[in-house]
């Protein structure tokens, strides 16, 4: 998962197929993108910088599947990638190397802030896209998944399946993407079972199976019978399977690591977005923009696990249908975990607000 620590700034016009929701009302419009001329497929080079190894089975694997789709769609196109790009000045050097090698388009599959922006500012002839980014400039855009909607849907299943009303969350860092994930799951659970609470444990890592196993074990020992989280590997699913609990995962289908425990997962699919962005760059129509990949168009819930009762599937999916029809379940009153009303009655949290979530909802402990 990406590491985003800054608030949003910038906006852009929607580019691509129309399946990507443009972000608006964040700031004044940036300078118009420079004209990037069309390219022949065989002359183009697209580079990807991944935050982890593409074999992590989670976040970077999901992005790599998108890269593979690009290669299939554009067989004459050249692609390069670097795994485990560090969050340091080394990232700047890697992005600069992409430009030096002749990249016409650069994707970073996590947020690299000024490390990528500084390179983009000095290479106006190159299109840059940053996952979980915050800034749009003439040639730098960003994109992210509205994972809070499938999290809410899965939360409904959690609220109906828990016996102790205690959900456990294996977190990583107290940042907006984690707050949005945990809060959405708990609010979904509380919508059908108001007595649900959630305890979160931060591991301070996106990929640390040992730490995730320890966190999941502690949550299980404290009485949590439904585990969820936002890690890039299936450690807490293994714990749930061994303890007879239920679990919901992130990134990809991981049921093979715990088929009895597996309820569902927030699953990601970047293929169509990547193909559309590359096609626009080749056609000379690409513009820097801020885009949300929406429910059923880049992010969704996975197929339900084998032990999820049909009635629960149907109740949760009824909400999925409502969301696809335009309904937003993040509506007030919503209180924080101190009891203060943060979202008053009659107010709906839009995606921009959820993208910046930095507080835990009522019933949440461990995330502040």
Automatic annotation (TrEMBL):
Keywords in alphabetical order: Signal
Top-level lineage group: Bacteria
First and last residue of the signal peptide: 1-27
Pfam families for this protein: Bmp (PF02608)
InterPro entries: ABC-Purine-Binding, PnrA-like, TAT_signal
Segments forming domain ABC transporter substrate-binding protein PnrA-like: 46-298
PANTHER family documented for this protein: ABC TRANSPORTER SUBSTRATE-BINDING PROTEIN
Protein's name according to its UniProt entry: BMP family ABC transporter substrate-binding protein
């Amino acid at each position: 998962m990406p590491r985003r620590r800054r608030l949003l700034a910038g906006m852009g016009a929607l580019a691509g197929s129309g399946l990507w929701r443009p972000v608006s009302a964040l700031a004044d419009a940036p300078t118009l993108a420079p004209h990037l001329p069309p390219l022949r497929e065989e002359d183009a080079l697209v580079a990807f910088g991944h935050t982890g190894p593409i074999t992590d089975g989670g976040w970077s694997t999901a992005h790599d599947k998108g890269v593979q789709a690009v290669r299939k769609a554009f067989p004459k196109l050249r692609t390069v990638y670097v795994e485990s790009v560090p969050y340091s000045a080394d990232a700047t050097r890697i992005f600069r190397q992409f430009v030096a090698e002749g990249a016409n388009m650069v994707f970073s599959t996590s947020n690299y802030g000024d490390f990528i922006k500084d390179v983009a500012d000095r290479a106006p002839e190159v299109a840059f896209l940053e996952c979980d980014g915050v800034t749009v400039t003439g040639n730098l855009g960003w994109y992210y998944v509205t994972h809070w909607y499938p999290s809410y849907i899965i939360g409904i299943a959690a609220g109906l399946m828990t016996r102790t009303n205690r959900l456990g969350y294996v977190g990583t860092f107290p940042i907006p993407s984690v707050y949005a994930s945990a809060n959405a799951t708990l609010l979904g659970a509380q919508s059908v079972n108001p007595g649900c609470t959630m305890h979160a444990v931060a591991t301070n890592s996106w990929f640390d199976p040992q730490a995730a196993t320890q966190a999941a074990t502690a949550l299980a020992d404290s009485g949590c019978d439904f585990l969820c989280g936002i890690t890039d590997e299936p450690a807490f699913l293994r714990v749930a399977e061994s303890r007879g609990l239920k679990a919901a995962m992130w990134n990809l289908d991981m049921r093979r690591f715990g088929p009895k425990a597996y309820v569902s997962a927030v699953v990601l699919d970047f293929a169509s977005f990547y193909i559309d962005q590359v096609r626009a760059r080749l056609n000379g129509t690409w513009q820097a923009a801020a885009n949300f990949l929406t429910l059923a168009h880049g992010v969704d819930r996975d197929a339900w696990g084998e032990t999820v009762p049909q009635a629960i599937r149907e109740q949760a999916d009824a909400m999925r249908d409502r969301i696809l029809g335009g309904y937003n379940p993040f509506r007030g009153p919503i209180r924080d975990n101190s009891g203060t009303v943060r979202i008053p009655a009659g107010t709906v949290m839009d995606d921009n607000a959820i993208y910046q979530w930095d507080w835990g909802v009522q019933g949440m402990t461990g995330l502040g």
